[in-house]
Amino acid sequence: MLLNNIKEFKFDNGLKAICLKKSGAPIVSIQLWYKTGSINEHDGVRGVSHVLEHMMFRGSAKFKPEEHANLINTVGGHSNAFTAEDMTVYMNSVPCKSLEMVLELEADRMDTLRLESDIFQTEKKVIIEEYHTYMNNPLTKAFLEFRQEFFRGHPYEVSPLGKLQDLQSLTVEQCRDYYQKWYSPDNVVLVVVGDFDEGNIFELINRYFGEKKPSDGAGRVDLVRSGIRNMANRMSRRVEFDVPILIVGFPAPSSSHEDAVPMEILQQVLSGGESSRLHKEIVRKQSVAVMSGGINHMLKFAGMSLFFAAFTPDMAVSRVEKAVLEQIRKIKSEGITIAEMEKIKNSILTNRIFELYNVDNICQKIGYSECIEGDYRLWVRRLDALKTLDGSRLMDVAQAYWDDSKCHVLHLRPSKVNPLLYAVGLFRRLFGKFRRGN
Amino acid sequence: MAGIYKFPKIEEVVLSNGLHLIMVPDDEQDGLIAIIQFSVGTFSDPLGMEGTVELCTRLLQKGCGRLNAEQFNEKMEYAGASLFSDVGEEHVALGVRMLASKQQEIFPLFWKMISDPMMEQREFTLLQREMITALKAEISEPGVLVNRHFYRELAGEEHPAGRFYSIGAVRKITVEKVRDFYKNYFSPTKAILVVAGKFDPEKFKESNLSLLKEFNNINNAPSVVASTVVQPRRVVRLIDKPILSQSSIVIGHSAPGEIFARKAELILANYIFGGGNFSSRLMSRIRSTDGSTYGISSQIASERYFGAFLIQTSTQNSQVATVIQSILDTYKEFCENGVEQKELENAKQFAIGNMAFQLEGIGNIAEKLLWLRFYDRADSYIENFDSMIDQISLESINETIRNCFFPENVIIAAVGPKAQIYRQLKEFGSVNSFHYRDRL
Predict the structure, then answer these.
(1) Do A302 and A189 belong to one domain?
(2) Domain boundaries, chain B
(3) Which residues of B touch A356 (CB under 8 A)?
(4) Which of A107, A161, A341, B155 could form a disulfide with B161 if both were Cys (CB 3.0 to 4.6 A apart)?
């Protein structure tokens, strides 16, 4: 199988490279997963990881500002980056003949970033624009408040977007300090997937990264990373959004925890697709919601298991909440069926097969598993883990995490509800019931 | 450089019912994908019942033959298969992706869905409710609002590109109308079916050809192919949404359609001006130099004949006028002076290098084939792509810029708080004001 061909090498300076040759399209994906993100920020510099991510495109010793992206575009490729709680990731995809160019670009900005003051001020303006783009979406804004409450007291409390006040006051020195502390070869995973020459790939990487000095680790303070408050919480917000929404969240395991796979299966049974329990029960059978869904947001040290339902203004939120929780309780007490287990296995297998058609996807999966879960093989082995799972184990996991005493609820209420629409909705509902009853 | 990119070997046949079948065997992974594309899209929505095509496409996926929606979903999803659809202005595509090992079970089920959908009243009611809810959610999106207003201004409410589905229009649609629409428009004539992935074409034909031929809806009504429009003057639209701290802006005008002879020049020109991400002039000036936005880009959105050129961005309310002026200055300079040789060379290299990404995996290959056949491009298009791009000269691209880009007669649409942006917008002409809840 393709995945058995993954090769890895750890260089003397601590850099870990993981490579997978994949023929097909003549392209290659190169990603650098730095093991730092908003989790390593403190008050006063909330958002610095993200600011630095932007500055990484603004010139290094050998390359001018924006030259990184321009050079990659010129060969037909694309480059981008994102900042998360536990990592900052730089992604490049190019025709295979340009692999070496990307290695040179990435190596140069690893330790010779320019961080010029005037460009820093301009880029801060861009990031503040980005901040407003997110905050102008009422759902995003409400969800960020929800997660803040969910993770209160934990380093995950503030999202990677940061705090506006901190972004405004952030200095280039603070950004440089962060860069020097966290950006070094011993704190990164380099992943290469695509059509390249297997014979000399590690030699090529060594040519550009081999001389880089590892960090002495100074200033890398381990923050308190375990134990979220785990207290039930209830929030209600009026938002400029015309559809009422209910979000229900429970603590979830970290992504490398042995309960992560069962948790993913449970989530799929409840919310994965039109044959999921939530859709069948609360949308189709009970008609209390118009749409439903869910997702596990599992991070390196903790996670959230989330469910949502969108409903009409004439429906009482308590009824929707009761219906959602009822489905969760049912799984906790009765487990899942053999057919549902089979469905999840087939669905995960199909997703895996289709992931393998795309080098960027493969690169991302390997990078995530290695950087966040501690071993890229976990991505490969996850399918095997499915085979040994039984129903009782799933019930244990459901009972352990979907605990009512730790349930967080957010109700988003439209700021304007048209009374006429309410009345018409109520009438339609009553009429609908009457008609179905006949 | 010609001849780097090649499609995998394909087999094509046009069946007696008019269905164009394309088979692309590819053993790279154990997946299989099937997509059927019909020559009908939202431009064919009946007047006053906009949303019919969308509802029809979704209703197709809610049960078929003797299987109701729940039974159908379970059969699909329990086998790990997933459905997808894409409703465009002049096309609709419906597809399924599956494990290759499940093809005997899933493909016939997919085909039953296409050729013998159940289209029940109950499912229709649920979908209608879902669509109305989604519409309510959409008007909270400044990006959606500003686009709708731009197209309404550009095309007018009589033109299909200027009409959108509204809550009122969706409520007028009945299940009977949708069933009629399906019978009249979702016909095998002119439809293209691509099957790509791990399968044996001979065995596939043996098992499925008679099934494919049974689909015999007769195309009674011609699909609407929208005409091009002319934008005669500058117009400014303000859509008031008081709560926003940032305004969303669209600036643009009409553009040639997909079959324009100099489409390649148009694409390269747009890449240089605003389509080329950080390499574009717009990004370089408005984001990298001024820091006035998180994102800015331009695009040519085109159907067969109808097309539009749009510049999209967002910025804080206090600097709306400054940003619009910078965009207009950059655009004027581009239109008057054209592009430079070096910029053209970079754009060509991007276009040629990027083709490899457009052919990665069976999904991309299937989509590319549908596009080629839909617009009657020759088989050699892909293999000759780089030499075609190579041949574009500085003169031809600058001539295209002079003929297709107009810096004066643009539509400027902005969604933001009227109290803060009205005076700023007045600098660019008389302002037509709307409220974000106004129906279009």
Answers:
(1) no
(2) 11-214, 235-435
(3) 29
(4) B155
